[in-house]
Structure formats: C-alpha cells, structure tokens
From TrEMBL:
This is Uncharacterized protein.
Length: 203
C-alpha cells in the first residue's frame, strides 16, 4: 500500500491545474486518510528520497490529509522544491442553499470556489430524512450552469461560506461515523476535497 501511494503521485509534477491535483489525490488517498501508521512511513520515505514527485505528493498531502499526517507532510514538503501548482491559492465564492426537505426530503447546497480566474463549485445533496447525511457530492467547473439548474428545481437563498460549511461539517461527521451507510461514490472520492474546504471555512 505504501508503494501504491507513492506510485499514485507519479503524474502530479506534470499537472498544472491545482483542482485536478486535489481530485486525483482525494480519490486515491481518501480511503486511507486516517491511517497514521501508513502516512508516517510514506512521509518519511518521500522526505528521504527528494524528487519532483516526492515534492508534489508531499505538498498535496499537506493540504488534504487531516490531523498529524498533514502536519508531517507539510514539514517534509518545506525541505523540497515547490510544484508548479499552488493549492494555497484557493479562494471562496458565493454559497447557495435550497430547501426541499418538506416535499423531497433533502437540502441542496452549492458552494463556489476559485483558483485564480478558474472557478469551480461543489454541489451537495443532504438527506434530511436520514439524519442530514450527505448522499451526493459532485464537483463542476460550470458554476453558472449548475446554479441555473438548481434554480429550475427549487428556490435558492444566499448563505455565508461559514454557515454553509458548518452544515457540511455536521453532515460529514455523521457520514464518517457511519461509513457503511449508502452514499454515492462521488462522496467518497471527493471527501478530502470537501473536508479541506470545510476546515478552511471553519478556521
């Protein structure tokens, strides 16, 4: 598994889009994100073998891994060259909420972000019938189109990024306590991407 994680970082130095970096790392690393024993070994190995791949993977892990492993990766990344992309350039945009809990049993939440002049959004469907569990989560670069489609289905209201991500934090906490509950694969694949935004908004 340690070698598989290191191999997964092979394409990262060639990428120029920070969002693509987040998605690739989140999809692969997500299932093992809380395994401190694994990350202790992986980070030590990457730190001892400097390369463009090591630097890129350590930088991505520093931004995406929760808790102590993220700190370990951040410390190791400082001793290596910076990659071409900058995950620290993420900014927050508008967030919108639509309440379909009465007739359809869910809340819809769209949160927009940007890397420079390249916007993107994450859209979440929160199941109010099953204890506010996030059932679907997908990422789109077509922010205006996603917003228009949601407006066709429900009335949307602006919500502050802090309030929006507080709702998401509660929802993801429930999902992570009961990972066996049925959620879409997109929720698993984008979990670290969403969790990173939650942490940044809440802090």
């Amino acid at each position: 598994m340690q070698q598989a994680v290191v191999d997964a970082g092979r394409p990262l130095p060639q990428l120029t889009d920070p969002l693509e970096v987040e998605l690739q790392v989140s999809a692969f690393v997500g299932p093992f994100a809380d395994n401190e024993e694994l990350w202790e070994v992986v980070v030590r190995h990457l730190g001892e073998v400097p390369s463009r791949r090591s630097a890129a993977l350590l930088t991505a892990l520093a931004h995406l891994l929760p808790g102590r492993p993220g700190v370990w990766a951040q410390e190791a990344a400082r001793r290596q060259a910076e990659p071409k992309w900058d995950l620290g350039a993420l900014t927050f945009g508008e967030c919108w909420i639509g309440d379909r809990s009465i007739d359809a049993g869910y809340l819809a939440l769209l949160c927009s972000y940007s890397y420079g002049d390249a916007p993107h959004a994450m859209v979440f469907m929160i199941d109010e019938i099953s204890g506010s569990l996030t059932r679907h989560a997908f990422l789109t670069r077509q922010v205006g189109e996603a917003l228009a489609r949601l407006r066709d289905e429900m009335r949307l209201e602006l919500i502050t990024p802090v309030a929006a991500h507080w709702l998401l934090s509660r929802s993801y906490d429930r999902f992570e306590r009961r990972p066996g509950l049925g959620v879409s694969m997109d929720v698993h694949q984008t979990r670290l991407v969403a969790r990173r935004r939650i942490a940044l908004a809440m802090n």
